[in-house]
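P.,

For your records, the input lines for the assembly:
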Amino acid sequence: MKLEWIDYLIIAIYFLFVIGIGVLLKRKIKTSIDFLMSHRNIPLWITSLAFISANLGAQEVLGMAANGAKYGLYTTHFYWLGAALAMIFLGIYMMPFYYGSKARSVPEYLRLRFDEKTRTFNALTFAAMTVFSSGVSLYALAMLMQTILGWDFDLSIWMAAGVVLAYTFLGGLTSAVYNEVLQFFLIVLGMAPLVFIGLDKAGGWEGIVRHVEDAKLHVWKGLDHPANNPMGVDAFSMVFGLGFVLAFGYWCTDFLVVQRAMISRNLNEAQRTPIIAAIPKIMMPVVVILPGLVILALQQQYDGFALPAAADGSPNYNMVLPVLLQKLYPNGILGVGITALIASFMSGMAGNVTAFNTVWTFDIYQAHIRKHAPEKHYLYVGKATTIVGILASIATAYVAKGFNSIMDLLQLVFSFVNAPLFATFFLGMFWKRTTGHGAFWGLLAGTLAAAFTHGVTTAEGKGGWIADWHTFYSGTSQAFTIAWIAFMVCLLVTVLVSLCTKPQPEDALRGLVYSLTPKVKDPARRWYKNPLWIGLAVLAVTIFLNLFFF
Amino acid sequence: MNKLFDLGFVIGLFFLVIGLLLLGYGLTVSRQPVNYGCGMLFIVFALFMIGLSRRKRG
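Structure tokens returned:
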């Protein structure tokens, strides 16, 4: 793929705008709350689009197109089952506690609800995971640029990291959030013409139906047995593992996305943020999954759309979007497509870095290193942490370059930590008897149970480092199973330990637990401002989509 | 924190610049319909965002 001056000019203009947003915001930043929490001053449409955009990183854009080709429409479960319901639940039931408790972060809510050790456990694992995820984004960007454009690996890493550092350092979280909105429109408008052109060339939806195997064109039909669907997953693992544990674990407890709702101007907007975000989220498969099906249909009709081989000889599905960009976009719009890809990497990286510096400053530094420093001090710490976070991400990217297996392992540990976390939050918010000791030991036991399950099962040659008791049809199936086992173990251990330890006084739990928090009723509120009604509307559309593509 | 600047206007401005570039490049250099077609699409979107932003301010 060869870029021309027009493509480079578009990339340069994009960099100019993202850094410009940081420069414009710099003079508005006076305190650590401005820098790390946007002073809870961001309008609803921006928080909603930033909420979805923080998740629209490189792994999402490239990975879902790859999954679209590999698993077909079953990939939509990550949206229609594994996102929408959890986002609605977050808005209606959990956001009142996050926002109403005035916690500055998800780990801080854990301190208010449980104790310092549970908060610190979550803060440390989260901080490590965000740096790691940010580094993976950077590594993937540099690899992609090297593969498809022939750019130098080091130059790509330092250029992307430098731009992200410039705008997050200057404007803090607000700058990251504003840029996420710009990146959202760029990704959608940059990729939508590719889908349209590809679909047109493939003969429309009829062309897809004619040329793609039927097994990839359904959402639920083959889930009666793992052998009957390309994902190799059964209905229970899909619904309970992905739809409940992983989806709720990610969307309801991951500070990276929850932070975007917590900076809203008021509770009602904080509640509506994830629900409004669910509307574009359930439409995203058109932009990120459909290209996978389009390339399958094009491969049957034209030469030149074959995917390059991966190291094991199988098609490298991660190249779906690059191949389509190369074949269908001429120079000019190609610059927009490449910029959209770069934007997705930078959006993922900036989201991780801003979540990292908030958690580090408030939940680790202020909680354990320097408790009562002047306000300005925490602003400096937040800014210094941004630089450290970017440098650590660069280091991680280089580690990933040298040791791919280490990255696999770390990815796995990430899922071990996230899966049981929802059990902790679920019990903490809805069962007042849950204690700090219960939460901590439950979390630890759930994480260890996830590691153990991975150690005694295998899938696609991975896992089984203790024994080989069971072999899954696919790695996806293994991941979903590990998730629900970790969740159940965390739930059981938390309940058992809580029942054996001293309950917290009810007065200390007001505003933190559902049964002890007065419900706010506002009869004058219009339907479109009512999170419940919007949530029900989004749910109805999601159910319709599932049935339509059954 | 003081009142922030209008993001809708900045997004509109970005797509206006990119749209005009694509339109100009598509009509004069590449002569590819996809370039000037997308250029026009971006300009329409940009004007919509700028219009919304102006209306809100008014």
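Two observations worth noting. Chain A has a mean pLDDT of 90. The CA atoms of residues 416 and 550 of chain A lie 31 Å apart.

Regards
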